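EI: anyone free to look at a 353-residue chain?
SC: sure, send it
EI:
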Amino acid sequence: MTMYDALADLPLQIDSYTLEGHARTVSPEFERMTTTVHLTGAGEEGLGEDVTYDPGLQVAQREAGPVLPLAGGWTLDSFSNHLEGLDLFGGEEPGLPAYCDYRRWAFESAAADLALRQAGRSLAAVLGREPRPISFVVSLRIGEPPSAEPVTRRLAAYPNLRFKLDSSPTWDDDLLRELAATGAVASIDFKGAYKGTPVDVETDPDLYRRCAEAFPDAWLEDPDLTVPAADEALRPHYDRITWDAPIHGVPDIEALPFQPRTINVKPSRIGTWRKLLEMYEWCAERGIVTYGGGQSELGVGRGQIQYLAALLHPDEPNDIAPAGYDWADFPSTGLPPSPLTPEIEPAGFRRRS
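SC: here you go
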């Protein structure tokens, strides 16, 4: 039996749903907005989080309200098939194709949480996996002009932290030496696989080479290997290259220029339980290590990706640090350290808050 087979036939009763908005100012230029989907039925409630980045689409969804025809008796699989035929954006144009997966995952994760609660079972029990303490890294941009201060300030408060850093062509060799001296850089994200988005980064083959040499033990995420000079710069480091933005399912891994040793799995980027669990199993069969990635979740979604990491890749450099570590005004005390205790709820698909 596959992992999806274990979930697919769970009964699901939906009576109604509501939407709850969240917002947090991440920087002067960026206010993060997400929406929690509350599915209710048979006296239980299931939660999922829509991490679509377009604030207009988030507001439009909330203003429209619970207009989707979701009520009824389903299995988790038949509900997923039902979602396939629905317009989750009410006639709006999502802008980026990835947003379709983001919103789909909000309803898929809420449905699983509700079905499991109605059955009185946890996701861990249904999949037959024991949750384990979760290693995590802290994902940061270090500003323009760039500075090691965001890293060193956090290390002063939490000395055992490790980091995934978004690189920039403005990084000079002095900064690289300062960052490398911390011994805390687990991953460099080149953002080279993003095209036509607000987070696009110019492809800089020299930066690729310098980062690979400065951090010889770090993973190198999402380089742009379509530029011959960039490909040449990283060819000696192919075994450390990993991918995130292009990965929406198994076909995307198969389409990569070479099979990676590891891959970043973001459930919201994949969209459905079937595709997500199939991808985990496909990678395991081929010896590809998986690790988790977040989407600046503000609600239940963060705990849910931590839950999956606890079951499927607890020891990897999961980019799913608890809220607070990535805040500009991050608290210097009181944040949970890595590894994070699983603390799953006895039924459903949630970590205890």
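EI: The chain has two domains: 3-120, 127-312.
SC: 👍
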